[in-house]
Design brief:
two-stranded antiparallel sheet; globular; 6 helices; 180 residues; single chain
Length: 180
């Protein structure tokens, strides 16, 4: 059985740039021999998320998958120099000890390159709280991903960064698995 990686797409739009990057990241993980388990905001009842109902069926499945995954990836558009509040609300149901020692990657898309430092800091603080092992944040500015009529295209450098980030997470996840 392939090891699993939980990916959470934290944009309110399923067609957002961050969701597209998360999908490309998931495809790279599959090529590396891992099984991505992709969750999006639409997979949860908003009231369950807002009120932190961890026993609700979808949230309970998500928490169990996060607990047993080899790694976690959180993808978001940048809102106010950090991840979305909806993504934070979903992450809030994960128990504090669920991600200890697991590699973790934050993915962020933003209009402005100036957001890179703050969103990286926010992801690192979040992953540190969980005692996860944060890897470098994958950050893309909107101009690096063209989206039109349901199709998308990455700038070559951005596509390579997605590939490199996914490969780094796959290697770290496999190292974690081997050390267990």
């Amino acid at each position: 059985m392939k090891e699993r990686v939980v990916i959470v797409a934290g944009s309110p739009s399923s067609a957002s740039r961050s969701a597209i990057v998360a999908g490309a990241f998931a495809a790279e993980l599959e090529r590396a021999g891992l099984t991505p388990l992709v969750w999006s905001l639409g997979d949860f009842d908003p009231a369950d998320v807002l009120f932190g109902r961890a026993a609700a069926p979808a949230l309970a499945r998500f928490v169990e998958e996060a607990r047993s995954a080899a790694a976690i990836v959180l993808a978001t558009p940048v809102y106010k120099a950090a991840y979305t509040g909806a993504l934070k609300a979903i992450v809030d149901v994960i128990p504090p000890d669920a991600l200890v020692g697991r590699p973790a990657v934050g993915i962020a898309t933003a209009r402005l390159p100036a957001h890179r430092v703050e969103v990286d800091r926010a992801f690192r603080a979040l992953f540190t709280f969980f005692e996860a092992r944060p890897l470098d944040t994958l950050f893309l500015v909107d101009a690096e991903l063209k989206v039109a009529d349901g199709a998308h295209a990455f700038a070559p450098e951005a596509e390579q960064r997605v590939r490199n980030s996914a490969r780094a997470l796959a290697a770290a996840a496999k190292d974690k698995i081997g050390a267990s």
